[in-house]
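Record pair follows.
FIRST:
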Amino acid sequence: MQGTDFRYMSGFGGYFETEAVEGALPKGRNSPQRPAFGLYAEQLSGSAFTAPRHENRRSWLYRLRPSADHRPFVRYQGAKLFAPGTVQEPLAPNRLRWNPPSDLPEGADFVDGMVTMLANRDPSDLEGVAVHLYRAQKSMENRVFAALADAGYHDFTVAQARAEKLGIANVRFRQIDAESIDQPAASLDGVLCRWGYMLMADPEAALRETRRILKPGARLALAAWAGPAENPWASLPMGELVERGHVERPEPGAPGQFRWARPGTIEEHLDAAGFTEYEVDTVDFANVYPSVDAWVATNRDCSMMLRSALEQLDPAEREDVIAAIREKALPFVREDGSAVVPARTWVAVAAA
């Protein structure tokens, strides 16, 4: 347009600056302690924080008000059917910060020294995150730190309630990653894992971590199920769903209930994890149920895969599946209608 003074900022990968009021941009620095005109300096990064300095792309902004400035949260009173989260109080979107805690436990071991600082989502959602601190000033004595595989909110509440009922006060329940245990080396007197390692993505890593946190000479006790034929209490209901195509047959070696069923498997994993002294044996027992329906209901409560598969079926197909299970379960049913179903498990004890 003739007579108009255009100024362009052209180029690729260059740096440019512009200001609405002359003197607003700082000279020789990006974030002065007191920007001109009382502005607020903010950096908007356009690169990963791991990028080398010379490759970093960013923008420095100098604003009248900081972008984080906001009024105190007030819950919206409309949308009556909208109910985010499961907590009683609304989740405020305000920025939160806290000072270092001044009342951490004194003279405590790892378990008693833990302090929860931050958590979101209810544990029963199986999603979310929690942040904990701990101050450990002495070793654990006559107590065990237990890791529960696939433990959800229900497991913790039931376990805690049982401990309280029995009057056991020196026990704590935590959910951790067994393949990377947040626990000092050589700090535990013993570890017990019932039917857990075969469900983990990398059981050898979990066993190595278990050996790391055990004191020299301390023991690991574990259990893992024998094969499907020896455990019809579990394989019969799930097998019916597999036969009908409602559940995929597990891949060989994939995490699962019978992953360690083959004789010699436990010994191989203990060897690989560095355990040199161990014993492995089998234990036979029986599960007794008031009825076949109670048998199915118990498995449904214990197996997320079985519960999910049954819930996804239409009512007619679900009833057909349960009827087929009742028929196949007849060899285990007694005259009073109860069911006695055999089970077999591997048990092992190993010294660190």
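SECOND:
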Amino acid sequence: MMRLAERPEEAKGVQCARTVTLSELRVIIHEAAATASTLPSSAGLYEEGSEWHHIFVLIDSKLLPNGVKDALIGGISIEKLASGGWSVGSVAGQQGNGPLLYRLAMEFANEEGGVGLSKNAGGNVSPSAASVWQKFSVMSDSNSSSITRKFVDDRDYFNAQTGELQQMRQRGRMKLDDEQADEAKSLIRNLWTAKDEDDE
């Protein structure tokens, strides 16, 4: 565990194995956000897609009897581009879960052609989403990160090798009836806001 000194006087006499750069510190902090491992054990993944569209929805099965809106942890929809890469259609989630949703989609995009995931093809990116993409850019510049980036057809594409998509699939895929699935997809498309303010 890394301990950061709150005040300069606390740092006196503390020896470090090496200096951590600001960029590396950002990677460490960012990767400490929600992960597949930190989700509740009752969280499951609902996946639906075709050759050109795919959606991932994280649902807390314990809360599902209260309705999809209460059980929804977050979701992301993606669309395939001519380059073979994928672009974000929409994403919405409870605070702290946005980066996890992006990483799930990145892993899928890597499985499906290897080009990766890019920002919304129409250029419509919210300030909070822009912040997440900026963090992924910084992470991809670090040799110790599980996020990589490549430039194809004038676009940045990102890939993740975290194993989180496989981990969520191993928990067992969430089953929703048609009405629940439609509600979940509608909430994601309409950028649902949870009880905790939405923040990627």
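COMMENT: The CA atoms of residues 95 and 199 lie 5 Å apart.
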